[in-house]
Design brief:
Rossmann fold; DCK/DGK
Length: 204
């Protein structure tokens, strides 16, 4: 079983991934943020480092999905390979921070990789509005996220909505998290589990 958690920066993906893995006794797979050699440079100068960052993420995610499928284990994954292309690279292209040449190059590599990748058995989209995202990002206090603008988060949210509305790779569960506090309120986490388990019964 392979469940993937998707959503904008600050939506709660990593936290929910950790909680679900613990609840089910499954393995958690996280985004390679702490060891990413380009992330701080990217937030300091997006136009200069956007292509290098996106290629790094794409390679890292492809390797991760390959290992997930080969392991035969039950996995909860933080983010997917699809977001790299449909959300972040496309948004950087729209903002003029990724040249047309680089975006075409990136897209051709993504399409090739996608042909070797199986979609998760269940994709969970954590839907959140921008004020809630800003509050969560501020609360966790990562230095390299301090320069993220509201405009950037808004553009990403639009990309997520567009991508999710057309997602046909596999089963999809949308959870609106603005009114939920699944860390502090057990009933909110219980609600999410009920939603997931109602979907999973059709996966076995």
């Amino acid at each position: 079983m392979h469940i993937a958690i998707t959503g904008n920066i600050g939506a709660g993906k990593t936290t929910l991934t950790t909680m679900l893995a613990k609840h089910y006794g499954w393995e958690a797979q996280f985004e390679d943020v702490d060891h990413n050699p380009y992330l701080e440079d990217f937030y300091a100068d997006m136009s200069k480092w956007s292509f290098a960052l996106q290629i790094y993420f794409l390679g890292s995610r492809f390797r991760q999905v390959k290992e997930i499928r080969e392991s035969g284990k039950n996995i909860v994954q933080d983010r997917t390979i699809y977001e790299d292309a449909h959300i972040f690279a496309e948004n950087l292209s729209d903002m003029g921070l990724l040249t047309e040449r680089d975006f075409k190059n990136y897209s051709s590599v993504f399409e090739l990789m996608k042909s070797f990748v199986l979609a998760p058995d269940l994709l969970i989209y954590l839907k959140s509005d921008v004020p809630n995202l800003v509050k969560k990002i501020y609360k966790r206090g990562r230095d390299y996220e301090a320069s993220i603008s509201i405009e950037y988060l808004s553009k990403l949210n639009q990309k997520y909505e567009k991508w999710i509305s057309g997602y046909q790779e596999g089963k999809l569960l949308v959870i609106e998290v603005d009114e939920l506090d699944f860390v502090e309120r057990p009933e909110d986490f219980g609600y999410i589990l009920e939603r997931i388990e109602s979907q999973m019964h059709g996966l076995f």
